[in-house]
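Loading example: each entry is read as two labelled lines plus one structure line.
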Amino acid sequence: DAMVIQNPRYQVTQFGKPVTLSCSQTLNHNVMYWYQQKSSQAPKLLFHYYDKDFNNEADTPDNFQSRRPNTSFCFLDIRSPGLGDAAMYLCATSNRKFSATEAFFGQGTRLTVV
Amino acid sequence: DAKTTQPNSMESNEEEPVHLPCNHSTISGTDYIHWYRQLPSQGPEYVIHGLTSNVNNRMASLAIAEDRKSSTLILHRATLRDAAVYYCILRNSNDYKLSFGAGTTVTVRA
């Protein structure tokens, strides 16, 4: 059974139109991550949460925001998508109590900007 | 984040072992060595991790150099399903960031 679920799997949005990607987890992990992965590149960490504490990577554009209303859900908001934001967006979770252990990834949402 | 260096690509024949090297010369005493892999069109999945001693699990083995400045992921008998990008990552036990380097693309020939 899927433990980190991302919806939708594919998302098409218009240039400049706000879009929200969602992630849910059944693992009760306190750390959640969002990554951006462009074609033929490694996943790039955008930000992560430890519980409700938000940690933004220094080079994450201001156009990207995130919300975590509770332990199970996390959202990625792209305020004004540009063509360069077309990518796979990956959500992952980890248990802070066992910081050396594995992270679990969702299947990703592939975002197309038209 | 401490950096890792991996070859861009490796090829293997099916049923043969694959040895994937990773250099991490700036590793600190509290960094764990993690390996993840990403199959085409899927999210990354955990493979194995270790601190100082060699580790084995159902997917692979991890051999860690005595000075911890390098490690090798060993796939004992490669199958076509092992074709993926393999990422070697250092994860600090005092932190929870998980940052990916470029990875090694593994191709398995039938």
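DSSP finds no helices and eleven strands in chain A.
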